[in-house]
Amino acid sequence: MRHRKKFNHLGRKSAHRKAMLSNMASSLILHKRIQTTVAKAKALRMYVEPLITKSKEDSTHSRRVVFGYLKNKYAVTELFRDVAVKVANRNGGYTRILKTGTRLGDNAEMCIIELVDYNENMLAKKEEKAKTTRRSRRGKKKSSDTTAVQTETKVENTSSEEVVDNVEEVKSETEDNSVDTKEETKSEDTDDKKEEGK
Question: What pTM, to 2 d.p., does this model score?
Answer without folding.
Answer: 0.63
